[in-house]
Amino acid sequence: MSKLIFINLPVTDLDRSKAFYEAVGATNNPGFTDETAACMVLSETIHVMLLTHDKWRQFTDRPIVDARQQAQVLLCVSEESREAVIAKVDKAAAAGGQPDPTPSQDYGFMFGRSFEDPDGHIWEVMWMDPNAAPPHA
């Protein structure tokens, strides 16, 4: 069985965040969604748990950072092509996200851009052709 990853993110407006993630291609798993949390499926193995602040506090007593002012993680997902990277960032921008909060990267064999979700969490989106990557020294 493949390992699964569940990314837990605190959000200020659950409905707005659900709509944003659906707009960038995630699907909602209603079996793990209620008025305090939403399970958004990015792929067969990657799920994003959107948690209200009250729900988040059930898991940790550490303070919730303002992701627009501080960064705790940078999340990165791959796409199948350069065009798909561009399309994903365009979808995020059209849905109210901030495009390119981090510098774009273009190394020929690898291309990446980024977006912020409505709560300021940064998602990097990248494509890489491993056959064209330079050899490691």
Explain what the structure shows.
This protein has two domains: 1-61, 2,3-Dihydroxybiphenyl 1,2-Dioxygenase, domain 1 (Roll), CATH 3.10.180.10; 65-137, 2,3-Dihydroxybiphenyl 1,2-Dioxygenase, domain 1, CATH 3.10.180.10. Helices cover 20% and strands 32% of the residues. It contains three helices and nine strands, in the order βαβββαβαββββ. The strands form two sheets. Strands 5, 6, 7, 8 and 9 form a five-stranded mixed sheet that branches. Strands 1-4-3-2 form a four-stranded mixed sheet. A hairpin with a 4-residue loop joins strand 3 (37-41) and strand 4. The model has no long low-confidence stretch (mean pLDDT 95).
- CATH superfamily of the largest domain, please? 2,3-Dihydroxybiphenyl 1,2-Dioxygenase, domain 1
Task: Give the termini separation.
Answer: 34 Å
Q: The CATH topology of the largest domain is what? A: 2,3-Dihydroxybiphenyl 1,2-Dioxygenase, domain 1
Identify the overall geometry.
globular
Spans of at least 5 consecutive residues whose pLDDT stays below 50 are none
Number of spatially distinct domains: 2
How much helix, percentage-wise, in residues?
10-25%
Indicate the CATH class of the largest domain.
Alpha Beta
SS strand fraction: 25-35%
**Mean pLDDT, rounded to whole units?**
95
The biggest beta sheet, please? 5 strands, mixed
**Strand elements, count:** 9
Structural class: alpha+beta
Order of helical and strand elements? EHEEEHEHEEEE
Q: Based on the coordinates given, report the CATH architecture of the largest domain.
A: Roll
Give the helix tally: 3
Radius of gyration: 16 Å
